[in-house]
Design brief:
Layout lengths: L1 H4 L9 H40 L4 H33 L1 H26 L3 E5 L9 E5 L9 H8 L3 E7 L6 H9 L2 E4 L7 H10 L7 E5 L8 H11 L4 H9 L9 H9 L4 E8 L7 H6 L6 E9 L8 H21 L2
Parallel strand pairs: 1-7, 2-5, 2-6, 3-4, 3-5
Antiparallel strand pairs: 6-7
Length: 338
């Protein structure tokens, strides 16, 4: 665990840049929570009136409750991380790491269950035994503000500690910033893929994976929208015909970027791969979707698959084809859901 905790490559140019950001985000979060808490009765009353007038199944009320909960649990997250840091000072880095892993799992699980309850969602899960033991590389669909939570929520049930590949913009979330600097996390730029620092950060996550470790990556690189699918097709046309043909067959997923998955497969030679697809969360692609009530009463279906290492090609070109085939399989599963 000690090695895992140290695997993150520093995403900031300097310590000054890191602490300057936190000097804004940490007090800013607390202030925003206090303001929201003070205004919440008025916000709920106004939203209820609008919801009744527009017959929106209290979508506005649910949205304000969700925002209030999100801000509050972020503040709780800061307290938990501060407690883990203090425990580390007295009881050592290994104890701090253990508390950080537990705090992350609790925070993600509480956030997920709150969203399910507030929006009255129902969940159906298949193949969860794919997460029975590591080392494991998790490759998941990304179509929602909420689906980044799913690997943590389910991995925690199986005792797995996760290492994440996430977009660098999430450094502006103080909880993700703080825990991501303590647990192995690669904060990468969505543009300019292949940057040496980002490649090194992703590769570092696969170092010294143990039987209770997993690495999570979202091969699409961003949340799916039809506009992004159109842009991806245009970018591949005439440049990579095989990738373009694969992308044209995908209706619900963006074409996967193979670089990150390939680097992880190269650096984790004994890790199996777990794929995750889901439906029902598309109604949370943007904040405005939550305001509109797209998630109210939704059925969220989650499907896991596990591929043994022996069944993964060794050749790089064959691995790219294998990843694209799996992406088509995930897309077909999504297409078959009601």
């Amino acid at each position: 665990m000690e090695q895992a905790a140290q695997a993150t490559i520093e995403p900031d140019r300097s310590r000054a840049a890191k602490w300057s950001r936190r000097a804004v985000t940490v007090p800013g979060l607390v202030l925003l929570w206090l303001v929201d808490l003070a205004l919440l009765p008025l916000l709920l009353a106004g939203a209820a009136v609008l919801d009744l007038a527009r017959h929106r199944r209290f979508a506005g009320v649910r949205f304000h409750l969700a925002v209030a909960f999100a801000l509050g649990i972020h503040v709780v997250g800061l307290v938990l991380l501060a407690g883990a840091w203090l425990a580390g000072l007295s009881r050592g880095r290994v104890r701090e790491h253990d508390l950080d892993v537990r705090s992350e799992a609790w925070w993600a699980t509480a956030t997920w269950h709150a969203a399910v309850r507030i929006y009255g969602m129902r969940t159906v899960v298949e193949g969860e035994d794919a997460l029975d033991g590591g080392p494991l590389l998790v490759m998941a669909r990304h179509a929602s503000l909420l689906d980044i939570l799913l690997p943590i929520v389910f991995a925690a049930r199986h005792g797995l500690a996760l290492r994440y590949v996430v977009k660098r913009e999430l450094l502006w979330d103080p909880c993700i910033d703080l825990v991501g600097h303590r647990l192995a996390t690669a904060f990468v730029k969505r543009q300019g893929r292949g940057h040496e620092t980002d490649v090194a950060a992703v590769e570092s996550l696969a170092r010294d994976l143990g039987p209770r470790d997993a690495v999570v990556i979202f091969p699409e690189g961003t949340r799916f929208t039809e506009a992004k699918r159109t842009r991806a097709l245009a970018a591949l046309a005439g440049r990579d015909e095989l990738a373009h043909a694969n992308a044209r067959r995908l209706r619900h997923l963006l074409p996967p970027h193979p670089a990150g998955p390939l680097h992880l497969l190269d650096r984790a030679p004994v890790a199996d791969v777990a794929f995750c697809a889901h439906t029902g969360l598309e109604g949370a692609n943007h904040l405005r979707d939550l305001v509109d009530g797209s998630l109210v009463g939704a059925t969220v279906r989650i499907r896991w698959w596990r591929v043994a290492r022996a069944d993964i090609p060794r050749d790089a070109a064959a691995r790219v084809a294998w990843l694209r085939q799996w992406w088509e399989r995930l897309d077909a599963w999504i297409d078959d859901r009601p």
